[in-house]
Write a structure and sequence with these properties.
Number of strands: 0
Shape: rod-shaped
Helix content: 55-70%
Radius of gyration: 35 Å
Strand content: under 5%
Order of helices and strands: HH
Largest sheet: none
Length: about 80
């Protein structure tokens, strides 16, 4: 009876430890799905930022043109 009490939990732990890890294709598919989700989130962030900057751009267009740089006086040739 003592042997069964010790061996049963040991057998259950052994079976739990022997679970198979996902194969390469499964891990690849999961990684690909995660990358695609991140890419879509980044695209959405970029689109939002672009729309926000486009709505702020007309105010910038009302600014006067920057003055041209002054030219130095002509050299006397000396």
């Amino acid at each position: 009876m003592r042997a069964a009490t010790i061996l049963l939990p040991l057998a259950l732990l052994t079976l739990a430890a022997c679970q198979r890890e996902p194969d390469f294709d499964t891990r690849f598919d999961e990684a690909q799905a995660e990358i695609e989700a991140r890419a879509k989130a980044l695209d959405a962030d970029i689109q939002t930022a672009t729309e926000e900057s486009a709505s702020a751009a007309p105010a910038d267009r009302d600014l006067p043109a920057a003055p041209s740089a002054a030219t130095p006086p002509a050299s006397s040739g000396e």
